[in-house]
UniProtKB/TrEMBL annotation:
Keyword Metal-binding found: yes
Top-level division of the source organism's lineage: Bacteria
Pfam families: 2OG-FeII_Oxy_3 (PF13640)
Molecular function terms, GO-annotated: iron ion binding; L-ascorbic acid binding; procollagen-proline 4-dioxygenase activity
Record-linked InterPro entries: Oxoglu/Fe-dep_dioxygenase_dom, P4HA-like, Pro_4_hyd_alph, Pro_4_hyd_alph_FE2OG_OXY
Cofactor(s) required, per the database record: L-ascorbate
Protein's name in the database: Procollagen-proline,2-oxoglutarate-4-dioxygenase
Sorted UniProt keywords: Dioxygenase, Iron, Metal-binding, Oxidoreductase, Vitamin C
Residues of the Fe2OG dioxygenase domain: 178-287
Organism listed in the record: Burkholderia gladioli (strain BSR3)
Length: 302
């Protein structure tokens, strides 16, 4: 049996701020109980905000159901064509591995050696410290969880970029316009990316506004542009999977299932570079046409 209770916005926002700061959920429940909330209501409030952060769903409004069924994440089938060899226009790529969760595929020969070299040459003079969107202002800030240099290409910026974007669309089944601008990242020795998810958690105005404009992120394609001497693996800690970067290979994973929830099993990181360096091109895919901010303050704008 479930009941519906009031969930005041100040309480919800207080829970959100503290969870974002890393405060333990049980400590928040205890604090709410100390302020006269019933234990089951306090636990439901904290759990509701935790679920929104975990699954990338909207924060609960002013009412909350207590005692109802808990919804998790049901993975959807990967949209990538079946079979060991995938033809993408005039290009062929071979499937090396498929995963059920996160729904993913590892591809060999997605890019040619020449395409990898050209991307690096185009990106190198335009690199800056990698940035992310500040959750409060929506402005680009230096990424605390990523010690790399990066830049973005505009959609269709060059014939090479356009050709690769058409190939990505053929692979994923999403039109080119659903993709954000191609991001280039360069990691030198010691550089890494700590665990994070790529979908946007709508718990702040910047992300909520971005989702309203362009929809949620539902897929990521990582394209490895060089062989790394040691380190630099793409790690998925929740499923015990790691991808060793090899030139021309690509790893595509999806984390949206059509129900409005995102897959927390898509949590991933890049291990520190032991020796050598690492170049990777990333394409984020949205549920609908990507519309950049007018002031170009969001990834994919530059």
């Amino acid at each position: 049996m479930s009941i519906t209770v009031d969930f005041p916005a100040p309480v919800r926002d207080w829970i959100l701020q503290n969870l974002t700061r890393g405060v333990d959920a049980q400590a928040l429940v205890k604090e709410l109980v100390g302020h006269q909330s019933a234990p089951e209501v306090a636990a439901a409030m904290v759990e509701a905000v935790t679920a929104a952060l975990m699954y990338g769903t909207p924060l609960p409004a002013d009412k909350l159901e207590v005692g109802g069924a808990r919804a998790g994440y049901e993975p959807a089938a990967l949209r990538v064509p079946a079979g060991p060899l995938i033809r993408l226009g005039q290009h062929e790529t071979r499937v090396l591995l498929r995963l059920q969760r996160p729904a993913a595929v590892l591809l060999d020969g997605f890019l040619s050696a020449g395409e990898c070299r050209q991307l690096i040459e185009l990106a190198r003079p335009r690199l800056n410290r990698s940035t992310v969107v500040d959750p409060v202002t929506g402005r680009n800030i230096v990424a605390g969880h990523r010690s790399s240099d990066g830049m973005f290409f505009r959609l269709g910026e060059t014939p090479l970029i356009s050709r690769i974007e058409q190939r990505i669309a053929a692979l994923t089944g999403f039109p080119v316009e659903n993709g954000e601008g191609l991001q280039m990242l360069h990691y030198e020795a010691g550089a890494e990316s700590t665990p994070h998810v790529d979908y946007l958690v709508p718990g702040n105005p910047a992300n909520a506004e971005s989702i309203a404009r362009s929809g949620q992120r539902v897929g990521t394609l990582l394209m490895y542009l060089n062989d790394v001497e040691s380190g630099g693996e793409t790690l998925f800690p929740q499923v015990g999977c790691s991808v060793v970067p090899r030139r021309g290979q690509a790893f595509y994973f999806e984390y949206g299932n059509g129900s409005g929830r995102s897959d927390p099993a898509s949590l991933h990181a890049s291990s520190p570079i032991g020796s050598g360096d690492k170049w990777v091109a990333t394409k984020w895919i949205r549920t609908r046409r990507f519309v950049p901010r007018i002031d170009a303050a969001e990834p994919g704008m530059k």
